[in-house]
Amino acid sequence: MIGLPEKFIGRMKNQLPEEEWGAFFGVYGKAPYKGIRVNPLKISAADFAKISPFALRRVPWEENGFYTEAEKPGGHPYHFAGLYYSQEPSAMCAAPLLGAAPGERVLDLCAAPGGKGTQLAAAMGGEGILVLNEPVFARAQILSQNVERLGVKNAAVLNESPARLAAFFGEYFDKILVDAPCSGEGMFRKNAEEALGEWSEENVAKCAARQKEILDEAAKMLRPGGRLVYSTCTFSEEEDEEQAADFLRAHSDFRLSGQKKLYPHKAEGEGHFAAVFERLPAADCAAGTVRELKPRISRSGETLYRAFEKEFLNVSLTRLHEAGGMLYALPEGMFDWKDLHVLRAGIRLGELKNGRFEPSHSLAMCLKKEEFASAADFAPDDGRTEKFLHGETVEADGKESGWCGVCVGGFPVGWGKAVGGIVKNHIPKGLRKF
């Protein structure tokens, strides 16, 4: 049984009916729920169920979500290939409420480590503009890695404050998700030492004040007629229901269209809150505009890339953009980011250096096996799979030569370079599994 703070116990007794106390506090003597969310940008939930290395049971509020009892689901090669994301089941409830759709402009304002943002990416299916922002740089780097692993093609990962984004974008977005920093009461089972160590009534009040600031900035970026979802992983009413009510009092052009609160004694999850706000339409309800980036690439850069593409790929990418020696393939409508701190935008194709084009890991993770002109494909339990993911050189089966995709069970995990019957490893050193 987890030792809960006395003040937390008192607060929850005031918040819940007495007949629910036993069930609620009883969950802290049980193991937390674990889940994965299948990534439909790579594979459908139905097809993944056929090859899943562990037993699955559906999460009711997310069509691609599953409960799992696997000890370390993140340790399987299919996780490295981006087929799924490890995510606490109740945390999957907020993103579907936003209703993100292909072609829209969508913002996840506090996006790290990427669970909800990559849910939004799945809903958008690679079409539209998805902005994933994280104010803390170290967390933004983790977010960027997860976006890369899951093969998201239409996202920009930013490292900015909400206030700076609001000043830049104005009423630009159709949909905004604010998964705000909170007191983390829903993390007491999953991450007991850290969550319990940081909890106090003072921290609850501090989080509520910060959440209000973030929501106020988010409201400035939503177009009239747009939707905003606010979520937390805590039970505190100051951060949940009262925060939603305060927001409505301060923003008369918004209305509340729904709320959801998952408690661990009533739903199979650690606990989550979400409120859905609609901004009322205005007479002139066109979305705000920012300057669109017109893709530019040097003649030499395009020549080098197209030569690589012709020899090593079976797909031709468009909207090529060159910046700082790097090449990108940008989604339609990408904004000009020169005044923002952007970690990634669209597909990072690779680097131009010393008169050649060298492909990036991002490009490999966005492709399908058949889009490589040549691919080495190993079974998940093939010894070469573990070696390659550890950064080692492996023997090739076929006649691969030069740059080739390396796949596990038909799903890309990175680039290799085949020479004389072996495949040299080009997984970035920081991503190799040790």
TrEMBL record:
Pfam families: Methyltr_RsmB-F, Methyltr_RsmF_N, Methyltranf_PUA, RsmF_methylt_CI. S-adenosyl-L-methionine binds at residues 110-116, 134, 179. The keyword Ligase does not apply. One of its GO terms (biological process) is RNA methylation. The keyword Ribosomal protein does not apply. It comes from the Bacteria. InterPro entries: Methyltr_RsmF_N, MeTrfase_RsmB-F_NOP2_cat, MeTrfase_RsmB-F_NOP2_dom, Nol1_Nop2_Fmu_2, RCMT, RsmB/NOL1/NOP2-like_CS, RsmF_methylt_CI, SAM-dependent_MTases_sf. Keywords: Cytoplasm, Methyltransferase, RNA-binding, S-adenosyl-L-methionine, Transferase. The active site is at residue 233. Gene3D superfamilies: 2.30.130.60, Sun protein, domain 3 (3.30.70.1170), Vaccinia Virus protein VP39 (3.40.50.150). Belongs to the class I-like SAM-binding methyltransferase superfamily. RsmB/NOP family. This is RsmB/NOP family class I SAM-dependent RNA methyltransferase.
